[in-house]
Amino acid sequence: MENRQAQLSSVTTSLDDLVERVSRVAEEVHAVGDESLAYDLFEVERSLRTAHRRLLAATRRMK
Questions:
Q1: How far apart are CA 7 and CA 39, in angstroms?
Q2: What is the domain range of residue 37?
């Protein structure tokens, strides 16, 4: 069980990093006026945040 928790903790950290990176690019793209691409990237960011929350909830249930 501890190995699974460690693996999920690592994935959670990776998701944190991905959310930040996608958010940063989305903001940059938005700033230069590419609304369509920015919209898509903000949607990806929201999906990653949802996945992050669900992963945290699942990890808490494992304890």
A1: 31
A2: 2-62
